[in-house]
Amino acid sequence: MTRPSQRITHDGTALVLPTAVTVTPDEYDALPPDPRIELVDGVLHVMTPPTTRHQIVMMRLVQGLLRRCPDHLLALHEQEIRLADDHRRNPDVLVVRRAAVNLDWFSFSPKDVLLAVEVVSPGTQTADRKHKPAEYADAGIPFYWRVEPLPDFTVHTYQLDETDVYESTGTFTAADVITVARLDWAALPVTDLIP
Fold first, then answer.
1. Burial of 97 (0-12, 13-18, 19+ CB in 10 A)
2. Per DSSP, which regions of the chain are E strands?
């Protein structure tokens, strides 16, 4: 089902966009790769382009994790996690097993993802705080971080507990170094991420 949505462009004209387009997994796979499109329960979700603040935080996080990753892991940005055939998410940052990396492909099974990170932006708060963590936990991804750039830069870290639900492992602000048990290699000063 397609429902039109109206967005006002920078010059004041109205642009009508579909807000809900249902596609099959095969139709989705035939689309050109685009990190701004996710498939959620068979429905295309088109995300707005990230702000400059969001991009800077995401890139600094990837760079910091790349410098610290053990040899068997790799930090990437905006790569697909195939949660189900009809459910694909593109976390802002993820750490994957290097053995699972195909340099000519962009999709990972949840079993190959150690850490998923979302940088919260206007319009993504509900998904990044509620829906995505629940989906990543259900898929068995061991760690989830949520970066809240505004109003005060904060990083919330979580890990799966014995019931496969994320439990908080810390809240880190500008004066802190992100430290998470079982991810000791990923110790990042929060100030390194702030634009």
1. middle
2. 4-8, 14-18, 21-22, 37-40, 43-46, 73-77, 80-84, 87-89, 93-97, 107-108, 113-119, 143-148, 154-160, 166-173, 177-178, 188-189
| Residues 30, 183: Cα–Cα separation, whole Å | 36
Distance, in Å, from the CA atom of 62 to the CA atom of 42, rounded to the nearest integer, reads: 29
Residue spans of the domains in the chain: they are: 48-192
Per the listing, tokens 């068997």 go with: 72
Class of domain 48-192 (CATH, top level): alpha beta
Q: 17 is written with which tokens?
A: 């966009």
The tens digit of pLDDT for each residue in 116-167 reads 999 999 888 999 999 999 999 999 999 999 999 999 999 999 999 999 999 9
Continuous H helices in the chain: 25-30, 52-68, 125-126, 132-138
